[in-house]
Amino acid sequence: MSSSPADLPAVAKALRVAFGTPVLDSWTPLSGGLSGAGVWRIRVGGIAYLLKVEAPERDDLRDPHRSYACMRLAAQACLAPRVRYADPNDGVAILEHIQAADHVGARADLVVELAQAVRVLHGVEGFPPLVDYLDGLDALVGRAAQAVPDGAFASWRRLYAACKALTPQPVSSHNDLNPRNILWDGRRVWLIDWEAAFRADRYVDLAAIANTYAADLEAEALLLRTYFNREATAAEQARLWLFRQVSHVFHAAIFLAGQARAVSLDGPELDIIHQGLSLGEPLLDTPQGRQAYGLARLRTATANIGSPAFEAAVAIAA
Hints:
Layout: H1 9-19, E1 26-30, E2 38-44, E3 47-53, H2 64-76, E4 83-87, E5 92-96, H3 107-122, H4 133-144, H5 155-164, E6 170-173, E7 182-184, E8 189-191, E9 198-201, H6 202-213, H7 217-228, H8 234-256, H9 270-278, H10 287-305, H11 308-317
Antiparallel strand pairs: 1-2, 2-3, 3-5, 4-5, 6-9, 7-8
Helix pairs in contact: 3-6, 3-7, 4-8, 5-8, 6-8, 8-10, 8-11
């Protein structure tokens, strides 16, 4: 049996503060995703909770002081699980455990619920600013470019310039709404993992949802109609299209940064990978799988930015 997380002094302290005892009924290690955090499902007094211990490295993005503050605000808005304990100095948090289930309704119902959740999130006050999202992504692209053939991210410069020319619409933003960070418990959705949360353009979250859950124009229109509580304008549709490409570049950069250099951009298409992920296949659990996903995102963005739709969207959004 693996050693108990309660053996860590910071965790024992958290358990005493939250529950009055450092004793765990049981603990089960869970995947910590890409952040390097340690994650366990624990039981105290017969009740399940989620324990998360942040990786010791700290930088501008990995800062529990900011992410825990955002997490608490999201929990107060009933968007994130209840926070039982969170100490940013120790990097330890204990949350209500959400038992995830497969969404059994129509995909359109899920799009509506996600749009409603994001609308509530964007109305929350108190998320701090960090960096200009596009400038931060530009720096990340610079690191990820070392893992792909020369010039593979060249189209990003056109997209960056086009989006920087738009008037910012900053809101309290999650900034990483991928399927791993969205849980369905059989009744409603929950948003989790707030490491990347700060004030950013509203279309960052909307684009992330659209790229995964609203593939066709009808679903995209439903997403925007629900979010705005009215039909979207042509400029709003165009801005979403542009930020969908930003979201592709973000995921490409995240999954390629630090990887071994790819000899080509070839690999499985994005739709195929998304189908596998929706079936629960562990496609992102290996370096090869993460590289394939990043390359698929990069190919999609490059093709779209090189299409006539890009210039049309730039003109309409402006």
